[in-house]
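The methods section describes the discrete structure representation at length, but only in general terms. An entry of this sort, consisting of the sequence and the corresponding backbone structure tokens, reads as follows:
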Amino acid sequence: MTLQRILYLENDPAVRGITAMILESLNGLTLETCDSLMDLARKVKSFRPDVILLDSLLPGMESVETLVDLCDIDAEDGTPLIIVAATERCGDSDHWQHIGAQGVIPKPFDPFTLAESLRTVCHGVSCGSSTSLRAV
């Protein structure tokens, strides 16, 4: 799988901006950001991402609900879902896998390894470190 187009649901505009700088400017990837599930629902079909990143904590919505809704939106093409979670929430890989995620990236993430972490989970390889990506 080639990783070029990333759709990222994140409610914090500062995190969206930093992520865009990291992935687009430093790694040459195409990033489309969303600030709500409704925004993501509008963009997922037209943008056709290679991977969807999902913040684990969105105001007003539990992450389980969000992922279930997201899976319904995108169930047809099997686009990988990767959770971006606070470090203390990364250890629950059974929970994330049960709701459809292929991996978890801890937040705050390392800007120098973020693109490689995304590629790793998209290829089904775990880094095996609690401070880096975890495939579920």
